[in-house]
Amino acid sequence: MKFFVDTADTADIRELAATGLLDGVTTNPTLIHKSGRKFMEVVEEICGIVDGPVSAEVVALDHETMMKEAEILRKIADNVCIKVPLTIDGLKTCKALTDEGTLVNVTLCFSANQALLAAKAGASFISPFVGRHDDNGFDGLKLIEDIRLIYDNYQFDTEILAASLRHPIHVLECAKIGADVITAPPAVIKMLSKHVLTDKGLEGFAADWAKTGQTIL
Ligand code: G3P
């Protein structure tokens, strides 16, 4: 399973990239706003930190303008992945861009039928929003399961990029279902390394080591 981080905070991206676990980055207009930085500049910096796909989202709603925005965004770096919304105009843009060999992430997916359309449009990635689905009284993980089943039934190459993950159980369940990629905020990814018994064990070892009166350095 690939790990993407869902942030435009380059300090967090650098820290996670140094662990070797990072396969890519996803951003969206909200995360760009949160960074307080210029969109193009921050995407360019992120593309220099990770080798894998970096999702940069178009903001236009119509196909023609989406194509113009994508043209500008994909020139930033070879690893830019154009993020388009799951609308008919977004799907048209997806088809046109993937036909030209550009990576495309179709976002704001809330149903398996939408995911089926994205695969038919040749999407590189489909982003079902697990947490937002849960927030609205649906079962976000069931959505991932349904998409996995449908994509496997027809051998679609589109990768399931489980997004809007809020906690470690979301990540665990996505791994069990077989999502190809997860994207989560830095805090959620860091939480995966935590265990109360790891902390307790470390405390015990540190206390006993101090009693030996020795040093390694
Ligand atoms: O980038 C898309 C998605 O991961 C957003 O997550 O937490 O804002 O629903 P969230």
**In the CATH hierarchy, what is the superfamily?**
Aldolase class I
Number of helices: 11
Q: Can you tell me the CATH architecture? A: Alpha-Beta Barrel
| Rg over alpha carbons | 19 Å
Q: What is the fold named in CATH at topology level?
A: TIM Barrel
Bound molecules: SN-glycerol-3-phosphate
- Roughly what percent helix? 40-55%
Uncertain runs with pLDDT below 50, 5 residues or more?
none
CATH class group: Alpha Beta
Q: What is the straight-line distance between the termini?
A: 38 Å
For the sheet with most strands, the description reads:
8 strands, parallel, barrel
What sort of overall outline do the alpha carbons produce when their principal axes are compared?
globular
Q: How many domain modules?
A: 1
Strands side by side in the biggest sheet: 1-2-3-4-5-6-7-8
Helix/strand class: alpha/beta
The total count of strands amounts to 8
Order of helices and strands: EHEHHEHEHEHEHHEHEHH
GO molecular function: aldehyde-lyase activity; transaldolase activity
Protein name: Probable transaldolase
Catalytic activity: D-sedoheptulose 7-phosphate + D-glyceraldehyde 3-phosphate = D-erythrose 4-phosphate + beta-D-fructose 6-phosphate
Family: Belongs to the transaldolase family. Type 3B subfamily.
